[in-house]
Each structure stands twice: as structure tokens, then as C-alpha cells.
């Protein structure tokens, strides 16, 4: 079975073999992908956030949980907020929301500066 990846055809077995290389963990691959994601490469915040989440192999629920302090849901962002941010329908978040989003996505708050001035 084959699937297209950014204009390149990759067979399912080829992509599986790359993941199965000895000494290459999913975390290492994620770090490499994340290192190549710069907010300057994106026109909109929602594109950047989705790319970061996917590079980290996180679900939207994972982002919500990562944004919490001590498993307290009132200290993090909600699933509707994450969904609206990634769809581009949220608008401009306040500073507290940006801090919580940065914590959830694991990026510096400064990365949001180029999107919201």
C-alpha cells in the first residue's frame, strides 16, 4: 500500500522500516521534526500550532493535559480552545491563554509574538 507524503510516494513498508531502525526512537524523530518548525515559516498561528502538535505526535487532548499545572484543568486550555486555535476561528487570545497554549504545545511564548501584535 502506498500513500503520498508532500508530493513523494512512499510505500507503507518503507515508512515502517524507517521507524524501526535500531537506535531511532519516536521521540528523537519528533525532536528533529520540531527543530525544523519555525513560527517564521507560517503565515498564521493555527498552521504553526497544528504543525507543532503533529510533529510531537500529540492529540488535542494531549495538548490540553500538557497545558495544565498539576492535573488541574482550570490551569490549562480546554479542548474547544485548542480546536478553535488550530482551525483559525479563535481570534486573538489574551496573554494568559497564550501562556497556557505555549505550555501545552511545549513552545516559548515568544513564538506567538509574530502572530499577535
Summarize the structure.
The chain is mainly alpha-helical and 117 residues long. The protein has helices at residues 12-19, 26-35, 45-55, 60-67, 79-87, 95-105, and strands at 2-5, 8-11. It has a two-stranded antiparallel ribbon.
Q: Can you put this structure into words, describing what you see?
A:
This protein has 117 residues and is mostly helical. It has two domains: 1-26, no CATH class; 37-112, 434 Repressor (Amino-terminal Domain) (Orthogonal Bundle), CATH 1.10.260. Helix content is 49%, strand content 7%. It has helices spanning 12-19, 26-35, 45-55, 60-67, 79-87, 95-105, and strands at residues 2-5, 8-11. Strands 1-2 form a two-stranded antiparallel ribbon. Strand 1 (2-5) and strand 2 form a beta hairpin. It is globular. It starts with a strand and ends in a 12-residue tail after the last helix. Mean pLDDT is 81; it is low at 1-20.
Amino acid at each position: 500500500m502506498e500513500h503520498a507524503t508532500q508530493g513523494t510516494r512512499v510505500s507503507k513498508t518503507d515508512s515502517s522500516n524507517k521507524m524501526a531502525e535500531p537506535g531511532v526512537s519516536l521521540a528523537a524523530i519528533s525532536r528533529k521534526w520540531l527543530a525544523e518548525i519555525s513560527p517564521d515559516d507560517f503565515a498564521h498561528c493555527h498552521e504553526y500550532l497544528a504543525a507543532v502538535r503533529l510533529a510531537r505526535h500529540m492529540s488535542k487532548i494531549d495538548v490540553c493535559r500538557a497545558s495544565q499545572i498539576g492535573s488541574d484543568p482550570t490551569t490549562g486550555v480546554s479542548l474547544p480552545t485548542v480546536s478553535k486555535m488550530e482551525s483559525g476561528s479563535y481570534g486573538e487570545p489574551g496573554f494568559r491563554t497564550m501562556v497556557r497554549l505555549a505550555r501545552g504545545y511545549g513552545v516559548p511564548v515568544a513564538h506567538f509574538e509574530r502572530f499577535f501584535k
